[in-house]
Amino acid sequence: MTQPRFLRAARTSAAGLAVGALLLTGCAATVNKPAGTDAAANASAFLTIPREDMGTFVQNFNPFAPTVNPMVQQSIYESLLIFNPAKGDTVPWLATEWKAADDGKSITFTLRDGVKWSDGQPFVAEDVAYTFELQKKIKGGYDYLDTVAAEGTNKVTFNFNKPWSPALHDVGQLTILPKHIWSALADPEKDANAKPVGTGPYTEVDSFQAQSFVLKKNPNYWQPEKQKIAGIKMLAFAGNDGANLAAANGDVDWAPQYIPNIEKTFVSKDKEHRHYWFPATGAMINWQLNTTKAPFNDVDVRKALSMAVDREQVTKIGMSGYAEPADCTGLSGNYETWKNNEVKENCTWTKLDVQKANELLDKAGYPKGADGKRTLKDGKPFQFKISVGATSSDWLSVANVIAQNLAEVGVTAKVESPDWAAVVAGYETGDFDSGIVWSANDPSPYKYFNTSMGTATVKPVGTKTFDNYHRFGDTKADALLADFAAEAEESKQKDIANKLQEQYDDVAPLVPLFSGPEWGAFDDTRFTGWPTEGNPYATLSVRAPTTVLVLTTLEPRK
Length: 558
Known about the structure:
6-stranded mixed beta sheet, 28% helix, alpha+beta, 4-stranded mixed beta sheet, 558 residues, 21 strands, 18 helices
């Protein structure tokens, strides 16, 4: 699937999902087939994009809401900077420059001159300071952040309670809200924000229906010369199948979801105009085991279950061969230059080894009965659920492969597939057995390791968390994470990251499955200027911060 970014969005501006019935069984979205060769029609056309995991839309553009619509963080609100994993560079956006203090305990951003909100009011430093005040009040996080001080109208200083090198991209990529609007709301957390005011290129809600909505140009955008497309039209689909049918039929311009056998089902229908690019810069996709429950609190069990998984089969069947199997470093393709080669080359528990898996489970005290099935220490069957959202056909296939693999070692797993909202609610409160989950994917691997095994991210069952769903913490990792955060020099950070990978390899906090590709396919019949492998100015993920780079580069075909 295209990753539903609950984890990332909740850490920053709290996005969620709403899900419904498949297009094929009743979705009523109305789409217009691209005009193509008509330059005038292209100039007035809306860039049409499917959202494959939302069966219906609700007119709610609040970034703190549990259910929020697409484009809130990509087109309506903007951040101080944008990190592009495809190119490995950081693009100044609402800020033009920044400077970290020598002691690592503060960063000062200089804001861009001439930026206005879509209602014509000026964008100022107080907007930034207020956004972080509101974020911490509603969603928490940013524990290292002491104060955010506006200095005049165009400078903001973030002061930390300790040296914190990962802060640049952590604070720099939070989307900023207008203080003059949000401070006047009676309940900012619950307000629908139906007519949003933002700094982004497309902010104006022109029409809104349950199956589609349109965003038109921000009349006060700070880069008017880059608003070359007339607007954006989002279509609601409750699954990959419906969205893929729309892509195959030529009803959308941008298809940022998992498409099986894409050469045959999509590209072959118009090889001149249809293309795709799946850079291996996505997050690591993990099989998370709820470590608050026995036997998942036993490292030998976690490693045994991991060795029972055939990752070649997982990636070939579940991901159509688009993904690369994980290794013991836990790191995705986004961090190739950070990987500890010794750990990577000497992996054991991320490689298929049914014999060793059986031996570890026997040793851990989970014997097989006469029927070949294992029991827990209390005599009950060794069985559990793997939870995956019903709309994600690819991840459901992954879960089913895992369930079949586990049967080979006498463990019974049942794939459970309610809607994503219910699945994630269970993840957040700790009310689940196991599930297929995305992960942090920042410029450095600090946040990945922090949310994988940092004790500060562990919340009790029943208390919501947006990071460490599996609720695992390790004190040795804590010490290394503290060293990493205090170190500003990348070469020294990499030395610490090597040790973090060694610890990850030792304790197996998660079961890494594969490095998630950044899905992206497009039809350039109506619009040109798409990012490609040869021109990686952004990824083609419509959920990524780089989406705004695409929106401000595309232009109608003439």
